[in-house]
């Protein structure tokens, strides 16, 4: 059984939770039920089969460190649930482009020196899958890294709301290179988007006419600090809004829906508070309103989803699949190439795993 070699762009809270999660469960017993994981062994690959080849960042406090040390380095402030041992996996200097916005530049100093040879490192380490955890709004930086991935010949998982897997231009580029791409914008295990989608589908299933809805999110991680720069928010708002409106059978009007970040509260750290309201009409045009608040540690909430996405990406590589991989993307991401109701996304992903999973020979 080969390992899955993974490189990570952006060693922030999400990377921290992912690396912690792999080592927290790397010896999980076969068939063990793990919160946020579809299968301990997915398509033949155990969680412990994931290995990290190198990390990429621009922060002077992270570049040059071992990945196991960098994931706990400030401004990272997520929940620590695992002590990761030294990995002998370096964090190298990446390309900045538009990856460092105004507010992040107040707390992050760029590491000196040139950008590392990303293509060379990907080839040298025989990396299978590259994950992008770049900050929201990193349009040019994302495209630059995609070009490196295409040249090096790796699968790409786009965790941020810059539209790659959902765009025909990039789908074509990955098809031409014979490589798979997954995305866009990672869903959480139980996050604001999935909860909002479930409530919208509940309204649909029970015949409630949704008239207005809103989702206001606050948090204290660098993602929320970065999003104070409203110019960086366009793709994020589109992604989160489409994830919800795609479940509606009718148009409620742009003015009747607001979904997006609201503000940065430093002392929340990596916790997120999501405040949701849905207003609708029931039988007899009688009003029905729902208000709720969700509180989560933001980054661990998506780490299990990413572990499953990585293993599906490896299955796609094994079978020479290319372009956007629709089934798992629909389940793992907010803005996939095709939107389905969540129960159908899950079913399609399970079928994908059964179809492309490693086959073991039966004993006679």
**Order of adjacent strands in the largest pleated sheet:** 5-4-1-6-7-8-13
The CATH homologous superfamily of the largest domain is termed NAD(P)-binding Rossmann-like Domain
Number of strands: 13
Indicate the proportion of strand residues.
15-25%
Could you say which structural class the secondary elements and strand pairing correspond to? alpha/beta
Mean pLDDT comes to 94
CATH topology of the largest domain: Rossmann fold
Helix content: 25-40%
The helix-strand sequence is: EHEEEHEHEHEHEHEHHEEEHEHH
GO molecular function, one term: inositol-3-phosphate synthase activity
GO biological process, one term: inositol biosynthetic process
Pfam family, one: Inos-1-P_synth
Protein name: Inositol-3-phosphate synthase
Question: Can you put this structure into words, describing what you see?
Answer:
The protein is α/β, with parallel strands linked by helices. It has 2 domains: 4-188 and 300-356, 3-Layer(aba) Sandwich (Rossmann fold); 192-297, Dihydrodipicolinate Reductase, domain 2. Helices cover 33% and strands 21% of the residues. A 7-stranded parallel β-sheet has the order 5-4-1-6-7-8-13, with helices on both faces. Strands 10-9-11-12 form a 4-stranded mixed β-sheet. Strands 2-3 form a two-stranded antiparallel sheet. The protein starts with a strand and ends in an 8-residue tail after the last helix. The model has no long low-confidence stretch (mean pLDDT 94).
What layout of secondary structure does this protein have?
Elements: E1 4-9, H1 13-24, E2 41-42, E3 45-46, E4 50-57, H2 67-70, E5 91-93, H3 118-124, E6 129-132, H4 139-152, E7 155-158, H5 168-177, E8 180-182, H6 192-205, E9 209-219, H7 222-226, H8 234-245, E10 257-264, E11 271-281, E12 287-297, H9 300-318, E13 323-324, H10 326-332, H11 342-356
Parallel strand pairs: 1-4, 1-6, 4-5, 6-7, 7-8, 8-13, 9-10
Antiparallel strand pairs: 2-3, 9-11, 11-12
Helix pairs in contact: 1-9, 3-4, 6-8, 10-11
Protein name: Inositol-3-phosphate synthase
InterPro entries: MIPS (IPR052199), Myo-inos-1-P_Synthase (IPR002587), Myo-inos-1-P_Synthase_GAPDH (IPR013021), NAD(P)-bd_dom_sf (IPR036291)
GO molecular function: inositol-3-phosphate synthase activity
């Amino acid at each position: 059984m080969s390992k899955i070699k993974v490189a990570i762009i952006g060693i922030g809270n999400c990377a921290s939770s992912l690396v912690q999660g792999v080592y927290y469960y790397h010896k999980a017993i076969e068939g063990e039920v793990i919160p946020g994981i579809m299968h301990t062994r997915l398509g033949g690959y155990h969680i412990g089969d994931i290995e990290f080849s190198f990390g990429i960042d621009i922060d002077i406090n992270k570049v040059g460190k071992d990945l196991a040390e960098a994931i706990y380095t400030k401004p990272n402030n997520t929940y620590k649930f695992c002590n990761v041992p030294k990995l002998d996996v370096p964090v190298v200097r990446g390309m900045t482009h538009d990856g460092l916005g105004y507010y992040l530049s107040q707390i992050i100093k760029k590491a000196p020196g040139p950008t590392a040879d990303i293509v060379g490192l990907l080839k040298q380490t025989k990396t299978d899958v590259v994950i992008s955890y770049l900050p929201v709004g990193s349009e040019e930086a994302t495209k630059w890294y995609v070009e490196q991935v295409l040249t090096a010949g790796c699968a790409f998982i786009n965790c941020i709301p810059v539209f790659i897997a959902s765009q025909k231009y990039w789908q074509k580029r990955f098809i031409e290179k014979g490589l798979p791409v997954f995305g866009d914008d990672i869903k959480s295990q139980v996050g604001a988007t999935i909860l909002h989608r479930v409530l919208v589908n509940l309204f649909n299933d029970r015949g409630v006419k949704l008239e207005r809805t809103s989702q206001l999110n606050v948090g204290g991680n660098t993602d929320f600090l970065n999003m104070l720069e409203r110019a960086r928010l366009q793709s994020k708002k589109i992604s989160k809004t489409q994830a919800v409106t795609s479940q509606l059978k009718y148009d409620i009007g742009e003015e009747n829906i607001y979904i997006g970040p609201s503000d940065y509260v430093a002392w929340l750290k990596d916790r997120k508070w999501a405040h949701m309201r849905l207003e609708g009409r029931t039988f007899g045009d009688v009003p029905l309103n729902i208000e709720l608040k969700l509180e989560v540690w933001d980054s661990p909430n998506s780490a299990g989803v990413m572990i499953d996405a990585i293993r599906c990406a490896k299955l796609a590589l094994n079978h020479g699949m290319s372009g956007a991989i629709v089934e798992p993307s629909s389940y793992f991401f907010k803005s996939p190439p095709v939107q389905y109701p969540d129960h159908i996304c899950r079913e399609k992903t399970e079928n994908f795993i059964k179809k492309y999973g490693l086959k073991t020979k039966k004993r006679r």
